[in-house]
Amino acid sequence: MSTLRLVLGDQLNAKHSWFRDKSDEVTYLIAELHQEQNYVKHHLQKITAFFMAMQRFAEALKSAGHQVIHLTLDETADFESLDSLINHLIKRHGFTQIEYQRPDEIRLLEQCRNLSLPEGTGLREFDTEHFLLPFEAISKEFKPNTGHRMEAFYRRMRVKHGYLMQGKEPEGGRWNYDTENQKAFKKADLADIPEPLVFAHNTEDIRNRLDRHGINYFGEMGTQLVWPITRSEALELLEFFCTHCLPLFGKFQDAMTANSEHKWSLYHSRISFALNCKMISPAQVIERAIQAYREQPERIDLAQIEGFVRQILGWREFVRGIYWINLPEYPSMNALNADRHLPDFFWDGKTKMNCMHQCIDQSLEYAYAHHIQRLMVIGNFCLMAGIDPKQVDAWYLGIYIDAIEWVEMPNTHGMSQFADGGLLASKPYSGSGQYINRMSDYCKGCHYDVKQRSGDNSCPFNSLYWHFQHRHASRFSNNPRTAMVYRNWDKKPEEEKTEILQTAEHYLQNLNEL
Fold this sequence. Notes:
Layout: E1 3-6, E2 26-31, H1 35-38, E3 42-43, H2 44-63, E4 67-71, H3 73-76, H4 82-93, E5 97-101, H5 106-113, E6 122-126, H6 138-141, H7 150-161, E7 165-166, E8 169-170, E9 201-202, H8 204-212, E10 217-218, E11 224-225, H9 231-252, H10 272-276, H11 282-295, H12 302-325, H13 354-366, H14 371-385, H15 389-399, H16 405-416, H17 433-439, H18 460-471, H19 473-476, H20 483-491, H21 494-509
Helix pairs in contact: 7-12, 9-11, 9-12, 11-12, 12-16, 13-14, 14-16, 14-18, 15-16, 18-21
């Protein structure tokens, strides 16, 4: 039996059991597919990073003695789909068995499970051997169309895997140190931000290939790609994080600044692309970080390591469960009936709102922004402006280097836009300009005045915040987590409320001019 095994661009796991043995009867297929460039418009760096990582993985497999077919867009241009390419390879090479690792997004899973193969050709599905919550356990942990909360899930995962535990109790006596993880930068802190470890991969060949095939992309990219594209580079970046960033990661994980040359990297690990491509595993990441915490207790305290473990063990695994348990309805949910179009400045960063300018510009330059920039600046604006969640999903999926649908959609559709009506979060993550002012220095020097709630020069986040609360009062006024907001609104004089709502209406009618 001659077997063709498909390896997708986010399945670059050298530790997978597939690769333990070598056989002349097994060939691995790694292919750049036109279909993957067309379902959404991607950032140029995202496409380039995936293609580079796939090429290097194919080379590593060949060096290890495996049979590999690596195809670029030049070789796959005549095949409109994965199905047609695989059938061509069956015909050419006589493969009698097709095997694949279960894709992590529904579109590709359905495509693999429904391949139209010649009669007598076998088809077999394997696990990716990556996640800490097995795929089969998702339906035991989650129920469809039911609200779930990350904290309860996170605690169960801590107990199950024994991370930062003392028996059945959390190390230090507390499960969560989030309150200690919300510090903003003071001016004196900026000089201490570490220079980020970056890589230098020549991008010329891939950019020329994309242009040759008319691939529609956006975003910026120089001649060098700064992201890790191999397992060894991912591990090097993880070591850098544990040594230089983890000691202050938790403290400043929500902070933002426009006044550091390292404003895009700060204390974040930046391993999410490598992690989501499976070059490294979540268990390996968590265990190495905990090891650093154990070895350097004088530099890394419990609040720093717990905040990091919560992101990987808690949030990453949690959103995957929300995604799979609520398909196929989840992408179409629009609980708040948001229908406005994404403003033009999302594609060029040209807006007078400095916070949005800073975060979108950074996203266009690096295909990256950290979670608060994504959630409480860009996502917050989209939520309060009532942008169509499908358009928001497509933008987030396209622009961020680490965005794969299973992780992007619940974060965007659920947490950021509340489009799922509360399946993921108990309240919408909306905030006025005061939150951004507290967590960043973006408001200093902005065209708009963060202290003003209404009027021509007032911060759009202020009036949009109250307009959002006002138009959704029937849904949120009785929510225990938002009831105080409505009590504060009711205390305002009617004249002030009218001015705020009129300002917001003006801004909503002129989003492209903000």
